[in-house]
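Today's session is about reading a structure prediction critically. Students often jump straight to the picture, but the first step is always the sequence itself: look for stretches that repeat, for charged clusters, for runs of hydrophobic residues. Only then move on to the predicted structure, which in these notes is written as discrete structure tokens rather than atom positions. Here is the chain we will use throughout the hour.
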Amino acid sequence: MKKIAVYIWATCCLAACSTPVTSPEKVDECPAIYPDYIGVTIPATIAPMNFHCIGGEYERVDVTVTGSKTGELHVNDKIVSFPQKEWQALLKANKGDSLRFTVCVREKGTWKQYRPFSMYISPYPIDYGLVYRKLAPGYEVYSKMGIYERDLSSFDERPLLENTMVPGMCLNCHAFNRTNPDRLSLHIRGKNGGTLMQIDGEREMLNTKTDSTLSAGVYPYWHPGGEYIAYSVNNTRQSFHVVKDERIEVFDLESDVVVYHPKTHELLLSPLLQQKEAFETFPVFSPDGNKLYFCSAEAKPIPAEYNEIRYNLCSIDFHPSDGTFGERIDTLVNAAAMKKSISFPRPSYDGKYIMFTLSDYGNFSIWHKEADLWLLNLQDGTMRPIEEVNSDDTESFHNWSSNSRWFVFSSRRDDGLYTRLYLASMDEHGTIGKPFLLPQKNPYEYYDRLITSYNVPEFTDKPVELEQRKVEQSIVSPKRISVSVRE
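Below is the predicted structure for this chain, in token form.
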């Protein structure tokens, strides 16, 4: 009864300062809102899904949100901004059902009431937060960038590391173990380059380049048991297009895949993953830890035939008991035969799917407008484009939640320039919901003014523990632990 009384009091306070809606004109269409949250499926702990009415000038907006099971929330203001506590109480009370939104807009003193729309509240939880990189979409110079953590139940964002702490530093390629931030790998480029490795609070700065490998470890992915981490090693270049619709191309002159064993500071190599006639990259372990998936392309002259490089999705057996590899490579998806190329494979943690990005060529699909997300069903071998979430612009990097019921991906659909983060649901039958833009307190103003792109989103099941001052000292220190290759 106490909670109900507080809720009624809050609703009455909001209504008391509002302009009442009287005899509105009924409009048989849904309102135009930004972000487009109409019909989306959301977790029961998501931050308030605030939005703006767009498409014309108006004096005020009145929104009533009614729970299918119980409860109601009312906002009457210029901006649709829901109180966080009342919003989350309403979601919790209607978990597994839906909310009905009735929107009225006052224009020139007259109220219009639009057709109501719904948001669906998934019965499946989502993780605590997201960790991502934000950076300006520049290329040759490392402007301000950082690794940030966002609490998904609120609008709270905090910097974990920013490159302003060390001049000229590029923060790149962070990875956690199946959303657990107790195991962290972060690659740093620039004058103070190295790989930051933090396991259960113990921190090391590594030099992962050896005489037997092309470079330091680049694209990381943890073994589910936490005792290994796979990296690609890449000799990477970039070039710039002169045509209007294409901006930049990033390609590898050569690349291989390695596995690192933190306990012994050893790299584990396989000749099948270091072939001169192939480019191997983007390694990821299967959820059971017994396979290593990766992308592989036939090596061709670069840059002369850069647009003929096409990566297939492949796998090799991995034996975690002794850190050895299988004796053959299997091709799961022959994208080259489709005249397409695969990048960023990500297995769902329930072992059912691999999500990947499919583009026309190359492996750096984040500037390819044709890049879409695809889903490979590991149970029956079928694959399909994820039409529920794809747009006419770039869909690129993506990751799964710990329960495989949500995924996050970056997209340029808003303006074609900046990548923004979208979330989407997937139920136990593989049904995918309409994606929704990462909520913000004032979304129109926030995204209109934001001049950085989101990059490499990772779910986390709890806040990341990282001591900035000690990390800074480790980065500027010349001390690095050198790794060796297991004989």
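Discussion point for the tutorial: The helical segments are 2-16, 84-93, 443-449, 468-476.
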